[in-house]
Amino acid sequence: VALLLGGLTFMAIYNLFLFFSVRDFSYLLYVLALVSTILVQGYVFGIFIHYLSPEWPEFSFRIPVYVMATTCIFSTWFALEFLSIKKSDGLMYYILVISIIVPIIPIGLEVLEFDYLSRKITVLVNTSLAFVIYFSSVYGLVKGKKIALYFNIAWTLYLIGVVLYAFNKLGIVPAKPYTEYFAHIGSFIEVIVLSFALGYKYNLVRLEKEKLEQQTREELEALVKIQTVELEASLEEKEVLLKEIHHRVKNNLQIVISLLDLQVASVKNSKNKEVLMQSKARVYSMSLIHKKLYQSDNLARINLKNYINELFTYIKNSYTYNASNVNYTISVQNIGLSLTQAVPLGLIINELLTNSLKYGLKSNNDSHLKLLAKLYDQSLELIIADSGQGFSEKDEFDIKKSLGLFLVKSLTKQLHGDITRYFHKGLFTTKLTFAVKN
């Protein structure tokens, strides 16, 4: 008896820990069923009477009926939850639900002090529900529920113990010291096997969770790959469209340049020709930006070094008739510049270089022209210097009179930059600084 009660108590504590680990309600039901079983066995053998209710003999007489009925309720409820039998399972679900309610009858009879009747009905209800629970496990096996296997084995052993105990009482099985405990032995083995069943269920739940997580992870990875491919295709399509736009803008500006060339050829007045040439250079500086963009892999930024080198070559070839033997110094860092800053900067460089080539070079060998562009702490510093006479910042009249200088001043404001002019080492220098946008 001590071994039986100790084993049942150990299993109750073990499953209680499992309940706190997994928070599965069926574990708590099984623990309550075990506690009820322990109380039944303790009172049947008279062990708990001395410790729990020595002063209430009437209570000690009635408590086994209450606890046995409670055991039936928790055991049936446990079977319903553990085997996951739901409304969709039809008749078996409603049989188990009714079976949970039936043990209330002997409890009511015992309260009304129908002692003999309540005990007979209690035995009948216990035996009947044992078979109902057993058939629910068979039903679970038929439905392919893996966890029903251990459950079925446990209740089969329990029923064997109960039947052998009954045969012993009927004289079919010879009376031996150990045959008196067939029902208790079957119950104890049933508890052990069911504890393994709960552990097996815990393992199944863990494996199912891992499988579900793996499946979810694979589905997410597949979805990410699909969306990545779609985004890449969409991005590639947008890049093609952007390149096409830049190409068309560049072609349109080239048409404008061609029209200006035709106009230059038809104009005889040298001053008008010069104005048209300047306009042509301004349009070219913008056209070149769009050309560089559609030829580049980066549609957002212009490589300033390549752009300035090509623009300088174009402007120099347009104005070299003014001077020969000129010393050119070009130093430009590889700087990425956005379209919104490259266009005004290109126009500024065009105006400053045009002025230097037209007015800042001498016919002798002492002519110099420098163009420097460097990045200092996210600020671009552009320097254009020539050997000309230059002019003072105070010459507001000259600045307002010159469209080129007016454009330089306006575009500098657009860049939120600063422009200064001064002589350095015999060269008239124009320095422009502005912050480069990331």
Give a verbal description of the structure.
With about 450 residues, the protein is of the alpha+beta class. The chain has 14 helices and 7 strands. Strands 2-4-5-7-6 form a 5-stranded mixed sheet, with helices on one face. A hairpin with a 2-residue loop joins strand 6 and strand 7 (about 425-435).
Note poorly predicted spans: none
* Number of separate strands: 7
Helix share bin: over 70%
Backbone CA Rg: 49 Å
> Averaged pLDDT, please?
80
Strand order of the largest sheet: 2-4-5-7-6
- Report the sheet-strand fraction: 5-15%
SSE succession:
HHHHHHHHHHEHEEHEEHHEE
**SS field, number of helical segments:** 14
Helix and strand content put the structural class at alpha+beta
Coarse shape: rod-shaped
How would you name the oligomeric state of the polypeptide chains in this document?
A: single chain
Distance between the termini: 83 Å
Largest sheet: 5 strands, mixed
Features:
14 helices; five-stranded mixed β-sheet; two-stranded antiparallel ribbon; 438 residues
Give a topology summary.
Layout: H1 2-22, H2 25-44, H3 49-52, H4 57-82, H5 91-101, H6 104-111, H7 115-142, H8 148-170, H9 182-266, H10 270-295, E1 301-303, H11 304-319, E2 327-332, E3 336-338, H12 339-359, E4 368-376, E5 379-386, H13 396-401, H14 403-414, E6 418-424, E7 427-435
Parallel strand pairs: 2-4
Antiparallel strand pairs: 1-3, 4-5, 5-7, 6-7
Helix pairs in contact: 1-2, 1-9, 2-4, 4-5, 4-6, 4-7, 5-7, 6-7, 7-8, 8-9, 9-10, 10-11, 10-12, 11-12, 12-14
